[in-house]
Amino acid sequence: MNRRNRNLDTAVNIAGGFVGLVAIGLLAVALAAVQYSDARASRDQVAAEAQRQYCQDVALWIAEEARNVPLAQRVGQPDYRGTAAEQCPAIRHSHLLELAQVGQRQPVRF
Fold this sequence. Notes:
Elements: H1 2-66, H2 84-87, H3 89-92, H4 96-105
């Protein structure tokens, strides 16, 4: 009977060790998922900030173009992606697009 108790104790220890390993594995998977989620949120935040900056630069360019500011003295950047009218709410919901169209018809003075 004593041998049987030792075998039972050994089996319980093995099972407990297995359960512990599974728990550690699940914890590692959960931590990896949290880190992946944080990294993705950070990437999305950086992309949103880059888009906001792009829209701001395009708006500055359009406004200065409409005021006939010489090309070498303008700030911002032209809409080189061609997406400002669709992806920039400040440009889409303002008169800046009309200014850009007017500005394109007028020659730039250097």
